[in-house]
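Journal club side-thread
Mid-discussion, someone asked how the predicted structure for our own chain would compare to the paper's figures. Pasting it here so we can look after the session.
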Amino acid sequence: MENMAFYLEDAMRILAETYHKILKINLSTDTHIDIKVYQSEQNENYGYSQKISEWLREFAISGQVYEKDLDAYLRFTNGEAIKAHFKHSDECLRMRYRRWTNGSFRWVSMELLKASDYTEENQTLMLYIQDIHDTYIREFEEQKEMEYLCRIDTLTGLKNLYSYRSMCDMVSREASPRPIGVLFADLNGLKVVNDTLGHDKGNELICGFSSMLVGQFSRYEPFRISGDEFLVVSIDDGEDEFLKNVGAFMELLNQDGFPRAAVGFCWQSGNDIARVTSTAETRMYEDKQRFYEMHPEYKHSVVEQTYHDEMSSLVGILTDSYEVLLIADLDADSYHIVKQNETSINAGEPVSGVYSRRNDNFCDEAVSEDFR
């Protein structure tokens, strides 16, 4: 029993440090037992009363509860509403509100839960109030940052794919059709820049293109939906106005004689932005194909092209130097012969097959016993 008393005392100490107000209230008798209450609050200026219903209400309307939280607070602390909840549920009731503390309004949490001796005839509850201001503000700021990151491309500051899809969903639910224009752009040469100059230079290219979009389409919604793909969505502009802006942008893209991006665009009336975007994307790919026909060196990255050139040169040198040359995939236990000598050809050796089997057969047939 002594140990139990010690544990209870320790538990009460922890609770007292955590909560700045702890009451045991009785809804049936409209009374309360104060377990922990600031002495300054036990006066009429804070609405203090032996009746818990009066205390909770007078505390709020005396200016201790933030004005915008007042209605929610009064609904939450309504005695009949609390009785109705606990008549059908054992679940704790919680609310957050702002109360006046040390010269400013701070966020606190009020919790109500059934006491151990609660009955229908004797409706006793425990009431806890805890200051959560610092934690809540930090979580609120983190939530705002998360929401921002969900909707914004952090490199360019443009809205991202999630924002674009949200816009599509919103417009699709509207009853009346709207004029919709979409420009779909895909950067030319980004992979070459990344491979030859590094990703920092690639990011500069992306940001520079983003600035061009914003400068030309400041009235519209620009999006970066992937690494080198961008969208501009116009809603409620007439076709002539939209095409005028697209034309000016195209001139800007090609002013150096090298198209900075492949572009497709479309204008339609309706509520399906995704359908308009699909048409613009198809036209963009047609423009990209024309770009590759004019600049085939950009079809593959410089690194890929250099690799293939070097491999071709290496294979040429090896085939001149060796009588048999094969490529073996040890994980797959397979091989493919690139060059064979006449002996191998006359022996009818398969051009490809199981590497371990070929190796065993070759050792048995062509390697002396001393070197097997």
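Post-session note: The longest strand covers residues 104-114.
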